[in-house]
Design brief:
It is a single chain. By secondary structure, the chain is mainly α.
Length: 60
């Protein structure tokens, strides 16, 4: 069930990428926005960690 919800939220994100740019009627619920924000935060942390490790390797 959790996977199904995550898949639906991801689909909403992909839809927003296209629709929100071209339609002023596109809406995202507060729950969806919160979920997406949390995923973006996770992604940012992962990218930061990987980049920091790579920079440390290059400096060594």
């Amino acid at each position: 069930m959790d996977n199904r919800k995550q898949r639906a939220m991801f689909e909403k994100f992909m839809e927003a990428y296209v629709e929100a740019r071209y339609s002023k009627h596109y809406r995202v619920s507060e729950e969806e926005l919160t979920w997406l924000g949390e995923r973006v935060e996770e992604l940012g942390q992962i990218v930061h960690e990987i980049c920091s490790e790579r920079i440390a390797q290059l400096e060594a």
